[in-house]
Design goal:
- β12 and β13 form a beta hairpin.
- Strands 19-27-26-21-22-23 form a six-stranded mixed beta sheet, with no helix packed on it. A five-stranded mixed beta sheet has the order 2-8-7-4-5, with no helix packed on it.
- It is built from no helices and 37 strands.
- The N and C termini lie far apart (155 Å).
- It folds into four domains: 3-91, Immunoglobulins (Immunoglobulin-like); 92-173, Sandwich (Immunoglobulin-like); 184-278, Immunoglobulins (Immunoglobulin-like, Sandwich); 283-371, Immunoglobulin-like.
- With 409 residues, it is mainly β.
- Keywords: Disulfide bond, Immunoglobulin domain, Repeat, Signal.
- This is Dscam, isoform F.
- It holds the Pfam family Ig_3.
């Protein structure tokens, strides 16, 4: 008895207008089997040895039915198997829908416009925005949303039997900071506020959250759903409706990136970020030089100005009698006086500036000018005692310190 195998499995679903083939093999019979296809008990096509192909072209509703393949080696050696063929009839598009991944959409974010429709053959699509064609695909993605993207979107689904359409309006809103753009600088204060504003259309969104990341504190999460606020760490923050983050006892540890996230009814959030910097006053100190210093003419001296605690690190600048001398530097600035003269006399001030916060320290420099020796004296001790030592001392006033030579007639 031959074994019957088919290249297709039942049920077979074919779209109207498509072509269909199924190969039937009758193998292992002795003698080799005759293979024949039948539809609803009526033979279709020829009988062939061991293999026959069922071929249907441009199928329609009349091709629905049961198809049987029979393999027969002799009258007592017969085998058969059947398939059920179902033809899906063509129909024009219907139940057309247009949806958005988020509505309202947020300026600067993204949104996808998606069309769906039932129809056979599979419909083609055109998407219009305010009567202007924007896509020949069933999905159109707007990568950077603008206010101009608001309006009516229409989807037309078409096939050879007709078309169907659907329309829907998209609203657009914006999340923005009241001031500061993408960065804010605060002074060290008891309380500061980061205020985000929302266009009214965005108030339909159901929850909001904030997150903060800095190298000093790690990451904090603050979220609000309805009237419930959750703070995942003991950071000193609060929330004011609709979208204001209140920071308390602000210091440099609050430096970092603050992210405001607005969650729409679909899980595709919109995010607004701002970098916050907290300025702190520097403390300046001059080392190597006292507040009042007197130098000899021609002497060299270096005074080092440093700062601590400034956020950001302070610029250090030296001034003499109110006029800047040298370049501003970070962390440390050296005042070098070389071979001083009377022109170096004055008040020197080192100013440390971080953001708008400053500290300063001054030194007074005086210079003792050089002069030739004067009021020279010679003093002899133990004078006139033969056999006894005598001390002869020469004294004089002068700058630099005079050198001495004593002679005897």
């Amino acid at each position: 008895t031959p074994t019957v195998t088919l290249s297709c499995s039942s049920p077979v679903i074919v779209n109207e207008g498509d072509d269909f083939k199924c190969v039937c093999r009758g193998e292992g019979g002795n003698p080799p089997a005759n293979v024949t296809w039948y539809k609803d008990g009526v033979q279709i096509g020829e009988t062939r040895k061991e293999e026959q192909t069922l071929t249907l072209s441009n199928v329609d509703g009349t091709d629905n039915g049961t198809y049987k393949c029979m393999a027969q080696s002799h009258i007592n050696a017969t085998n058969e198997t059947s398939i059920e063929l179902v033809v899906k009839l063509n129909f024009k598009p219907k139940n057309t829908k247009i949806t958005f991944t988020k509505n309202p959409a947020v300026v600067g974010g993204n949104v996808a416009v998606m069309c769906e429709s039932s129809g056979l053959p599979e419909p083609s699509y055109i998407i219009f925005h305010n009567d202007t064609k924007i896509s020949n695909e069933k999905t159109c993605t707007i990568d950077v949303v603008q206010y101009s993207d608001t309006g009516t979107y229409k989807c037309i689904a078409s096939n050879k039997l007709g078309n169907d359409s659907a329309s829907k309006s998209l609203t657009v809103g914006q999340i923005y900071l009241r001031r500061g753009g993408k960065s804010l600088t605060f002074l060290k204060e008891p309380t500061v506020k980061i205020k985000w504003s929302l266009d009214p259309v965005l108030f339909t969104n159901i929850s909001r959250s904030w997150s903060f990341q800095s190298s000093a504190s790690g990451k904090d999460e603050i979220s609000r759903a309805g009237d419930i606020t959750i703070v995942t760490r003991l950071y000193e923050v609060d929330i004011e409706k609709p979208a204001t983050l209140v920071l308390k006892n602000v210091n440099g540890s609050y430096n970092g990136t603050y992210k405001f996230t607005l969650y729409p009814r679909l899980p595709d959030p919109s995010i607004s970020e701002v970098v916050v910097f907290v300025a702190e006053k520097p403390n300046v100190m001059v080392i190597n030089c006292p507040r009042r210093i007197t130098l000899d003419e021609g002497e060299d001296r270096t005074c080092v100005c440093t700062e601590q605690g400034g956020n950001p690190p302070a610029n250090l600048t030296w001034y003499k009698d109110g006029k800047q001398i040298g370049e501003a530097t970070y962390r440390e600035n050296r005042l070098t006086l070389t071979s001083v003269t009377e022109l170096d006399v004055g008040t020197y001030m080192c100013v440390a500036q971080s953001y708008t916060l400053t500290d300063e320290e001054s030194i007074e420099v005086n210079v003792t000018l050089n002069f030739k020796p004067e009021n020279t004296k010679i003093v002899i001790e133990q004078q006139g005692k033969v056999g006894k030592p005598a001390t002869i001392t020469c004294k004089s006033e002068g700058l630099p310190e005079p050198s001495y030579r004593i002679t005897h007639d």
